[in-house]
Amino acid sequence: MSFSQELINDYEKLFEANKGHDVIIYTGKDENVKKLYAHSLILCIRSQYFHAAFSNEWAEKKDGIFILEKPNISPQIFKIILRFIYCGKIDLTKFQGSELLDLLIAVDELSIQSLISCIQEYLINNQYKFLQEDPIEILETVYHVYQCDTFAGLWDSFLEAICDKPEILFNSDKLIEVKASILELLLKRDDLLLDEIVIWNNLIKWGFAQHPSVKQDDLKWDKEEIKIIKSTLCRFIPLIRFYHISSEDFQFNVYPFRALLPKDLINDILTFYMTPNKKNDIDIQLPRNPKYDTSIIKYQHFAIFSSWIEKKNDSYYYKTNIPYHYKLIYRASRDGTTAKSFHKKCDKKGPTIVVLKIKGSSQIIGGYNPFNWDTSKSYKYTTDSFMFSFTDRRNTKTAKVSYSTGTYSIGCYPTHGPIFGGDFSCKDCATTWRFNNYFHSYPDIKIQTGSIEVDDYEVFQVIKQKQNSHDKYNPFKKKYFLKSLFKR
């Protein structure tokens, strides 16, 4: 028999009764100041901050009552925190993004560790929703607090969200309100999913917005206006990957602003376009990571897959240093749902990752095959293949991986699509899979047994990245560029 809920209710009544208290907390400031009452014993047990305040007696004490002043925390926020301290009750769904950040800053100051983790996880899992509400306020608040190590992961997550869906900010009129320090951090990212010319055009737009008095027509600039804009943008120029802008876009969108660029950079870019054989003499930045063609997963999943492939299970790659490229070679809903369709697209392509989205669920499951798929009617044996599950594909913390024991690791049969361990496979219908777990080729990661209905599944060819290769740069129409350039 458990009376835990009864105990919780009694503590909530104690909190609301305002009786027997030995702590008075003045919260808010000016006309918003409000007194809140509490019990020091409960506060000490639940918060390191209050334990230090009352144990070391740096809190003022008058007539046996501890007096605390917290003008930087609003009465509403403090009352929510006290309720959580007393009875563990809080409903984060009722908060706006900015309110949650205020709450997070307050609970961090009061050292309520369990609530810090809870709020951060909720913010990360709902980051796109909050960024849609007000990207500027959210980014600036998170940027302000991320200087503290506690929130470094939160800041990285929100930056990744903007890079993954840059239209939230870059398609918004609010871009011009972004602080230079935040814009600089975004432009440093390798995973910012925008064409380089779009980044450049937005940077010019942002620069003009900082100086409304500067004429929009660059042909009418005087020396002072050139100096103003050049000074504003100088910190960003090295972050633009000009060599991944087409010659046409360079001519029409970059070259008109050549006064803002170092002369040696202009010369190098022109050399790049006009004499391709001299490209190796130029220090060319690698392109930003291309957007993966997938309707099921995100960048962070590929980073995790890469770590699992190399068996780095204690730490994951960041999205900016993924050592593999994942090329979509098969999507059941696009390429056909039969085993024959799978083998036509996936056989003899080397290592692959298979990803399934379970129907009516946020769960994704799948596996890694380090060999070729084929129709040899045989099994392959290895301890490098693995199966995985994300209970919630939006939350990478729900990830689980299971490496093959080395028996019946990968099955290759013309009558079936992918087979992992003789246990997990689809026959001739891509929307229905089975997981039997008879052979125990992969240790259990809580995948349901029996028939599994899926919305869709994708297969990615896993390609080891080359470190420094110039053979993937955009092709340029040299003759067109030369001809058009000298028309100016």
Automatic annotation (TrEMBL):
Residues 295-463 form the TLDc domain. PROSITE patterns: BTB, TLDC. The lineage of its organism: Eukaryota, Fungi, Fungi incertae sedis, Mucoromycota, Glomeromycotina. InterPro entries: BTB-POZ/Galectin-3-binding (IPR051481), BTB/POZ_dom (IPR000210), SKP1/BTB/POZ_sf (IPR011333), TLDc_dom (IPR006571). It comes from Rhizophagus clarus. This is BTB/POZ domain-containing protein. Residues 21-94 form the BTB domain.
